[in-house]
Known about the structure:
Elements: E1 2-12, E2 20-27, H1 53-58, E3 67-69, H2 71-78, E4 85-89, H3 99-106, E5 110-115, E6 128-131, H4 145-150, E7 153-158, H5 161-173, E8 180-185, H6 190-203, E9 206-207, H7 211-214
Parallel strand pairs: 2-4, 4-5, 5-6, 6-7, 7-8, 8-9
Antiparallel strand pairs: 1-2, 1-3
Amino acid sequence: MLRVNEMFPTIQGEANWTGTPSTFIRLQGCPVGCSWCDTKHTWTVSPRKQVSIEEMLAKVDSAPTWAEMSETEVMTAASTMGPRHFVITGGEPCSYDLFLLTANLKTLGSVQVETSGTHEVKVVPGTWVTVSPKIGMAGGLEVRGDAMQRADEIKFPVETAEDIERLEELLSQHPANGRLVWLQPVSQGAEATELCLEACRRNRWRLSLQTHKYAGLR
């Protein structure tokens, strides 16, 4: 069973799939502990916050409520949202075994998983895996080599110059090997954006801006 925080149609606003109409499936629970996380309401799984599937699907706010759903129930609900590119995010979605869910969703369309790289990625072949490696976060979890190797793309949030140094060190251990590397300025800050631009020019990486936020979407 999966604990689902919310499910909604939007556009993917980041990295390779930017601009793609998408159905987001946000799972509850995350042990990583990023200080600048904009979905902290997904961190804890409190039994007191469990709601019905109908209540979860109707929510429009960032609340720590969640509904327990089977993979089949998730697929059925997602099929009514419209967009057939499905983005499984969190929270930390790879704290779950996603093999059955990704298999089910792939019968409907394309599937993407967004993960911190701190858990084993259990998905069916053909799932697009976006690893956003979280290095030195409060939860004390290490970025896994097998997760880095499974990545189809690497998307890295940047707040300071030290963040870029950490990414360069990580990639020296786990090379990108031709996969796209995206830098994403935290909170669209001007200083962070300039740091990203400079590093993209230097390394032939790409800049990812959260275009869904510019469009006023979730």
